[in-house]
Amino acid sequence: MKQRIKELGLPHMRVNNAGCLDRCELGPCMVIYPEGTWYACKTKEDVDEVIASHLQGGERVARLALPERPDKPEQ
To answer: What is the DSSP letter of 38?
Structure first.
């Protein structure tokens, strides 16, 4: 994902490895800040879809979205 973001020249985006995000039981996952949208991406194509739809297009990818954390504080 980091390489693809660089290739596309997307500004103001940072991709980093965070290790366990305390949702390990759901498999590989990512969270996009500042909105806090969680995704389970299992393939390169899943990652590409999140980049194109969410990061470039501003639309959530419903099929990859994880449910909100039950312990998430109220905003």
So the answer is: E
pLDDT at 7 over 70: yes
Residue 7 and residue 35: Cα distance in Å, rounded? Answer: 24
- Structure confidence by residue, pLDDT tens digits, 30-50: 999 998 999 999 999 999 999
CA 55 – CA 48 distance, rounded (Å): 10
Residues 53/59, Cβ–Cβ less than 8 Å? yes
Segment 22-29 shows an average pLDDT of 84
32: enclosing H helix or E strand: strand 30-32
For residues 41 and 74, what is the distance between their CA atoms, to the nearest angstrom? 26
CA torsion sign for 11, 1, 75, 67 is: positive
| Beta pairing class for 30-32 and 37-39 | antiparallel
Amino acid 66: pLDDT: 93
